[in-house]
Write a structure and sequence with these properties.
There is one protein chain. By secondary structure, the protein is α/β, with parallel strands linked by helices. It folds into two domains: 208 residues, Rossmann fold; 208 residues, Glycogen Phosphorylase B (Rossmann fold, 3-Layer(aba) Sandwich). The chain has 18 helices and 14 strands. α15 links the parallel β13 and β14.
Length: 447
């Protein structure tokens, strides 16, 4: 039965390849990186085989996973100098971020499409001796091919939500053999481990979340704190916002400004006169769209890309008069969290699972999150228990809770301290993961 289902799945993956090409072309209109080396996605490479042997394959599908992989790679290289990496991604932002992780002898390509032909060409060309998948990436043909080659494949920093487990159970003839083909899963939490075992995987340990081991950029933190000290008002941030959430947020900001500062028929340009608003969309291709949305709400906007850092950033020039600051840059979340007094968590006010709140805590920025945090269930619960975060039922409550934190210095200071302590005591997953990988790294080259 499982073999038959895998053949049907493989046929489907082969047949939809033209649709994938069209999708890449559409996405490239906003993110040109999707047109880079397209044939790599179908297992066709230009690197000479003899130049890319004995590689350790690390797959980090998107931006967040790539940043997490950076922590693991740094620790692995420290223990194994000269380690050569084959780095793969699925998104343009992940691939752009991954360039900085490469060293001489490393190779970076797109993740192969999960068709038998593309996967076979990928393994035959690069011949990796060990594969490390970050967090959630489980593809049936990829797992089957690795198992057939005798190549160990480990899922690091593994997480599996209840929703994803139920999806896996519904297609168990396809998903169970895939999970069972993993050599080991290093789960983030006990609940993740339970769900992985239920899906048929071998759990090699529960090591915590690698993201706790990330140290926010110190220079960015110092700059953010310096900017905050010069501002006359506190800053409310909406971090990693997603489509649909920004409109809810801006409605609440405008409504609060109307009720607090002016008659009900006054124009909405009064927003932010008691506090500043910093809006940082999750996806860079939406920066222009979100700016247009802000203006549709009758609010003035200033983009990070137009700030004069030397003159004081948002505290200088036209930015001072703006109602909303738009964080239109990549890799500056530590700056944004450090200049903010409180942050609402994107992806948690729509059923999207929430974004990572760990960096906010490590920067001393209290977090308000909505009801949907299934991507970071335990971290969210622990942050609430620690006093570093609050959970609310909707955006209206979220904005009011954030405002209340800004208005109460003692409560705010306690939340800042709680966040820093919460981030510090959950470190150590990277070392535990590297220790566990030693047995696989000691094995000879497979295949």
């Amino acid at each position: 039965m499982s073999d038959f289902v895998l053949k049907l799945y493989s046929l489907l993956m082969y047949c939809v390849q033209p649709l994938l090409r069209r999708k890449l072309a559409r996405r490239a209109k906003q993110e040109p990186g999707y047109l880079e080396a397209v044939e790599e996605r179908f297992g066709r490479y230009t690197q000479p085989v003899e130049a890319v042997s004995e590689l350790i394959w690390v797959h980090a599908v998107s931006l967040g996973e790539t940043r997490t992989a950076a922590l693991l790679l740094a620790a692995l290289r420290a223990r194994h100098p000269g380690l050569r990496i084959l780095l793969t991604h699925g998104t343009a932002t992940g691939r752009a971020e991954g360039v900085a992780l490469l060293q001489p002898g490393d190779v970076q390509v797109w993740q192969p499409w999960d068709s038998p032909g593309a996967v076979a060409r990928f393994f035959e060309h690069f011949k990796p001796r060990l594969g490390l998948l970050m967090e959630t990436e489980v593809w049936p043909n990829m797992l089957a091919a690795a198992k057939a080659r005798g190549m160990p494949l480990v899922l690091a920093n593994g997480r599996l939500s209840e929703k994803s487990l139920q999806q896996a159970l519904r297609i168990s003839p396809l998903s169970f053999p895939a999970y069972a083909a993993l050599s080991a899963v290093y789960a983030q939490t006990d609940e993740d481990a339970r769900r992985f075992r239920q899906a048929g995987a071998v759990v090699g340990g529960v090591f915590g979340n690698l993201k706790f081991d990330a140290s926010p950029d110190e220079a960015q933190q110092e700059k953010g704190k310096a900017w905050r000290r010069t501002l006359a008002q506190p800053v409310m941030m909406f971090a990693s916002s997603r489509e649909g959430e920004e409109d809810q947020f801006l409605q609440q900001i405008s409504a609060m400004a109307q009720s607090e500062h002016a008659p009900v028929d006054a124009p909405p340009q009064e927003a932010g006169s008691r506090f500043k608003v910093l809006l940082v969309p999750r996806h860079p291709q939406r920066f222009n769209e979100v700016e247009a949305l802000v203006r549709q709400h009758g609010l003035r906007v200033s983009r990070r890309s137009g700030w004069d850092d030397a003159a004081g950033g948002p505290g200088s020039g036209d930015a001072q008069q703006a109602d909303v600051w738009l964080g239109d840059s990549l890799g500056e979340m530590a700056l944004y969290f450090s200049m903010s007094d409180v942050a609402l968590l994107g992806g948690s006010f729509a059923p999207l699972g929430g974004q990572n709140l760990i960096e906010a805590a490590a920067c001393g920025c209290p977090v308000v999150m909505g009801p949907h945090t299934f991507n970071f269930t335990e971290a969210a619960e622990l942050a609430v228990e620690a006093g570093a975060a609050k959970r609310v039922v909707d955006m209206e409550q979220g904005v009011r809770a954030a405002r209340k934190w800004m208005d109460r210095p003692d409560a705010h200071a306690a939340a800042v301290a709680a966040g820093l302590a919460f981030a510090d005591r959950n470190r150590g997953a990277t070392e535990r993961t590297v220790n566990a990988l030693q047995a696989f790294l000691a094995q000879g080259k497979a295949g």
